[in-house]
Amino acid sequence: MVMFSVYRCDHEKRKSAIACITEVIGEKNTEHFFVATQDAELRKKFQQIPGVPLVYALRNALFLERPSAFQQESAKAAEEERSRMTELELKMLKLKKKKVANDEGRNSSETEEEQILETLIPRTDVKMTRIDKADKAQFKRKRAKGPNPLSCKKKKKQGNTDTASQKVHLKCTLPANNHLGNEKSSSVSGRRW
């Protein structure tokens, strides 16, 4: 079962619900909020903002609205942007191509390459559009658990194999005429019953 938390806003002055929700969502929905509303106009407004899932109720069920065409286009554009090479990667690729072309007949020093890479790295800024370090999901690794103790076979005890000689045999003596009213008692190994 999925539990959703409710955002609490701290406005000094009173605002309408629509104004408050639009302020919380903002232009890019950086906090990845879901919006649950019955207001059709508000849903149309949030369909123009990429990354805003819309939930509405109909009878006894909650429905997640399909992403609008604008949201689908922005998702495709963001995916294409992430799949492209950054400027740093492009420069490193060109440098490697030059090195391979030059190294076919002779060896070049690695210190020159390291110096070039050091000059390239601090100047370039990697642009991440919608994914920041705070936005990335942090997965908790599950550690390995031990075996189920009920499914494990118990170890055999290595003891004396002469268990038959250790048993004490008990003798039972029953009187033959006990059913005739004789009050002889039957005994088993010296005990009365």
UniProtKB/TrEMBL annotation:
Coiled coil: none annotated. It comes from Salvia splendens (Scarlet sage). PANTHER family: RRNA-PROCESSING PROTEIN UTP23 HOMOLOG (PTHR12416). InterPro entries: Fcf1/UTP23, UTP23_sensor. Keywords: Nucleus. This is UTP23 sensor motif region domain-containing protein. Pfam families: Fcf1, UTP23_sensor. The keyword Nucleus applies. One of its GO terms (cellular component) is small-subunit processome. Residues 139-157 form the UTP23 sensor motif region domain.
